[in-house]
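Q: Structure tokens for this one, please.
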Amino acid sequence: MRRTGPGPHILAYALAALVMVYASYLLPRMLPGDFVSAMYSSSHVTLSAAQEQELRSYYTGRDGFVWYLKDLVTFEWGYSYAFLSPISRLILQALPWTLLLMGSAHILSMVAGFFAGVEAAWRRGSTTEKSGVGLMTVLQGIPEIGTGVILLMVFAFYLGWFPAAGGETAYAEFSGLERATDILKHLALPFTTLFLAYLPGNFLLTRAGMAMILKKQYLETARAKGLPPMRVRYAHAARNALLPMVTRFGLRIAFMVTGALIIETIYSYPGLGTLLFNAISQRDLPLVQGIVLFSSLAILLINLALESAYGFLDPRVRYAS
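A: Here is the predicted structure, written as tokens:
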């Protein structure tokens, strides 16, 4: 047995980062149209061909992959055409909202799905397990956009229990506990939408993993030693079912921006998804490529951290024959 070093993994992640840098530059430029045409498409102002060409030259004066790399090396992400603000500032303003929404939905759905899946597998064959599997299967078949629209129509428009849009009440001068309560009210519906979307997969994956682990002989040995059922269930069985959950968490993080794009747009939530939607609709290429690159690199770092966590959850992962 020999322990594998981190070198090949770090090199693979570095190569992936280079690919993402190029993709973040190339893909936004494959969108039809440009900022000038998007800006004046719904305007009553009519530009001559010379004026259009002059504007395009102005906005693309520093366009080119070499300039893009130079800006990245010097930590200059450029300015947004539409918002007339540094791209780094716009991303940092929207990022906390997305982290609050997506992070809480990912983590809480993972915790709830894990414990519910463990308990369901431990009670395999019971009415509780069958009911849980049936409910989660139904929920998994409902798309996020469908859940979001239903919650919005019922709890925001019909009952009026929660705000229909935004991250907090506009122009309200709240502070302290009042502001936190206001933010949580705006967070409730988008969070519930994502929680219900992520929970079934976490539950079914944990239950399936636990069902396989419960057949292992080492659990019979643990029971024969007289260990308490709770310790057998979680210290010996559930810990080995946690590794697939960590893998799923990393894979779901890769869809963070796309998931945020749909849900944040439905609820007009002021996160990266809404910022990306506005940038695409206005063909604000510097902002689009900034968000794409930032999200891609963040996903790489998160997956690198999760790969390191595998060794803690299962020491066998740290070794290769």
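A few notes: The longest strand covers residues 2-3. The domain at 2-31+77-320 is CATH 1.10.3720.10 (MetI-like fold).
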